[in-house]
Amino acid sequence: xxxxxxxxxxxxxxxxxxxxxxxxxxxxxxxxxxxxxxxxxxxxxxxxxxxxxxxxxxxxxxxxxxxxxxxxxxxxxxxxxxxxxxxxxxxxxxxxxxxxxxxxxxxxxxxxxxxxxxxxxxxxxxxxxxxxxxxxxxxxxxxxxxxxxxxxxxxxxxxxxxxxxxxxxxxxxxxxxxxxxxxxxxxxxxxxxxxxxxxxxxxxxxxxxxxxxxxxxxxxxxxxxxxxxxxxxxxxxxxxxxxxxxxxxxxxxxxxxxxxxxxxxxxxxxxxxxxxxxxxxxxxxxxxxxxxxxxxxxxxxxxxxxxxxxxxxxxxxxxxxxxxxxxxxxxxxxxxxxxxxxxxxxxxxxxxxxxxxxxxxxxxxxxx
Length: 368
Known about the structure:
The protein is of the alpha+beta class and 368 residues long. It contains 9 helices and 11 strands.
């Protein structure tokens, strides 16, 4: 006899009223004692609801399979096609291993899901180092002459090797920041404070850039440092006044040195000008004396040539010219050799001449 026809409606071991073998069958969530819901009943209800939603009473039709395949193909195509922006480069990975080729900007295809893509921006970036954080400056450094300086600088860099940038170092940007700060401290520690303040900023910046690039290449970060600029270098605020006094003293020293050099150049230029003038005058005097001597010599030679032609005539002419030059400015009285009537040879003729010259003057005065 079937079990469901037994008296009491129980199973083979009794327990009617839809009970189990021990008369404790499954109960719904609204059971009298609040027992947990039946899992089979929940699954059955879910199947019923799915049948109501799907067309055709829940049966799997070829159209449904086609829709599912089309959706899966669209999802695969969407995942397989990617775009690289103009300022980016992409690296494809096959089973997690990077390919040697780089994907240029544009639309690309890869076999997803066995291949994935990692992108890296190659645009130039700027990082500022030594800025004030939390009221304290991170750019305080010790110079080579045991002075403390506060240096603020910026580094311009970009990605040169996307594969190295993406996979060699965990955080390349932070690595560059730490390397740049360490390199600046190293270079400043070898130089006096005056170099970083004003004397050799450009040289320090170039040394730091080369040091950073060398370290980044050793780490394999794939980054290239394009430029490094020292924005500001100043003493700490606590000793700024003392440094200002030193700067003013150095400026005064430079001014005094410049003034002394200017005065020295002025005096030296004046002395050189006077020396050149004296040399020119000496050269002119020398030239004049030489020209006069050559002229006199030439005149003497010409006179000698004329004398050689007629010695007697020349001798007489020279005598006459010499006597003319001697007697021209003296008082003289010419007396013939035989004398004349009333002439006494030893008469003081010059005194008589003076008296004869003064007598008309006295006569003229008396007439007045």
